[in-house]
Amino acid sequence: MRWLLRGLILLTTALLCHCGTTGSGNMGGPTVEERKAAIASEPTGDFYYGRRYYIEKTRFWGYVRRPRQSWDKAKLVIFREDRKLSPDRLPENGPDGRRYGFDQNHEYRLNGYFTGREAYDPNSNQFLPEFMLTGYETVNRNPGWLFRPDDRYDPYRITVYPR
Domain limits at 90? Predict the structure, then answer.
């Protein structure tokens, strides 16, 4: 009986260690090759692609990049909403699915421009580029991982960033 218990403990430990090192994340999504092909075939123009990255109590919006540019080149930004409110500008304490941050990991086509200024997000203690949002449309509500297939999302701390 003791050897069986030891075996189960060793098996459980091995599985837990294996899960942490396989590179599997919790965001799902396409293969690396599929993602590269999708980015390479994007239409170009005077717009950006943005991916909402919601972390509770932070004020940054997410990552923004130019068409056909890899996500590794994207910038984490704070939106300036003088001309257009962000897609999820809703009360933070609203009903499920209709509150600020409901669109975590949605991908958007964004109209706007970088102002050249930086804005401070006190909850993440970062100075980030300011992006003046002038319009948007939803591209994909479930695009999967952002930078790598092993990306892991945690709504309470920054875990998804280019490395």
Answer: 31-163
In a domain, 60, yes or no: yes
C-alpha–C-alpha distance, residues 69 and 36, integer Å = 10
Other CB atoms within 10 Å distance of the CB of residue 163: 5
Q: Rounded to the nearest 5 degrees, what angle is found at the Cα of 148, between the Cα atoms of 86 and 87?
A: 10
User: CA 70, 82, 127 angle in degrees (round to 5)?
Assistant: 50
How far apart, in whole angstroms, are the C-alpha atoms of residue 79 and residue 114?
9
Considering its fold, how many domains does the chain have in total? 1
What mean pLDDT is reported for the chain? Answer: 86
Structure pTM?
A: 0.82
Taking the C-alpha atoms of residue 132 and residue 78, their distance in angstroms, rounded to an integer, is: 9
Residue 145 lies in a domain: yes
Strand 48-52 and strand 107-121: the pairing is antiparallel
Please indicate, yes or no, if residue 92 is contained in any of the structural domains: yes
The SS3 call for residue 32 is helix
